[in-house]
Amino acid sequence: MRKLLFLSIMLVLLAACNNPQEQGTANTEELKELTVVLDWTPNTNHTGLYVARDKGYFEDAGLDVEIIMPGEASAEQLVASGKAEFGISYQEGITEARIQDVPIVSLAAIIQHNTSGFASLEESNITAAKDFEGKSYGGFGAPVEQAIMESIMNQDNADVEQVDIVNIGDADFFTSMEQGIDFAWIYYAWTGVEAELRNQPINMIYLTDYSEKLDYYTPVLATNEAMIEDEPETVKQFMNAVSKGYEFAIDNPESAAEILIDAVPDLDPELVKASQEWLSPRYQDDAEQWGVQKLVVWENYAEWMYENNLLEDQLDSERAFTNKFLPKIGEE
């Protein structure tokens, strides 16, 4: 009798374990739902997030994470208001926000060094900041553009007033060049790599070629102060999973690219693969681990912004970022 009872119980347990629908429902109910909002359309800056989601790192951490794109509200606005728990931002945006008492905090540098700069077609012969004089610049209308241009042109004894600054909105680099623009600000990991694939030679003047203060973190992963204060364990779990995602992308650029392509089929597969190959070693670069941020980087760029009248007040840099949720540092 006892044997029959034991067998009956075991059969019931096995049936429950082998019922994927019931098991999946239980697991889903246990996961904490979170949202992370991108800064722009999906690209290789974001690969680690998609890896963490699609390889189950978030789920292993007890999280159900939705990756969304910003709408009329920016990632900074959505994160600061709590409508998204996490978001992709950049050092300049967080600096400006905190000066205005917006409680947003950077959790990790997605790319360790600034890979952006001013690009032009090779035939334009723009090889230094002094060559901007007499040329047209296609920008997006932000005050920081002219300030950066003036800052590096001053080092070449050139005059920013001699540059024709044109607001081209969302027009891409190649379209604007076809329309008579001479140079524009790009991120090499995407637009520069695309130029390579097009066999279109370009000249690239990186911001870091001219100033250490312009080697700021862009992009970064951010949250708000309330999440840090009220749900530190959730932030830790999220960052553990994201760190694993970017570490996978560092070590496996080809596989990581495939994950991003599968997740966002509208992307050009050739561009994603080439961009991922170029960017993967630059996520961590010379840092002790992926995501680490340095106080001096935050202080340098905030000081530069203040000196160039882009900030009304000086930044309390120590409160603008934290490394404590990065797995290895947080465990020390």
CATH class of the largest domain: Alpha Beta
* Count of alpha and pi helical runs: 15
- Please tell me how large the radius of gyration is: 23 Å
Stretches where pLDDT falls below 50 for ≥5 residues? 1-27
Briefly characterize the structure.
The protein has 332 residues and is an alpha/beta fold.
Could you explain how this protein is built, in words?
It is a single chain. With 332 residues, the protein is an alpha/beta fold. The chain folds into 2 domains: 31-113 and 217-331, Periplasmic binding protein-like II (D-Maltodextrin-Binding Protein, domain 2); 116-214, D-Maltodextrin-Binding Protein, domain 2. Helices cover 46% and strands 15% of the residues. It contains 15 helices and 10 strands. β6 (136-139), α7 and β7 (164-167) form a beta-alpha-beta unit. α3 (47-54) packs across α12 (253-263), α11 packs across α13 (269-284) and α12 packs across α13 (269-284).
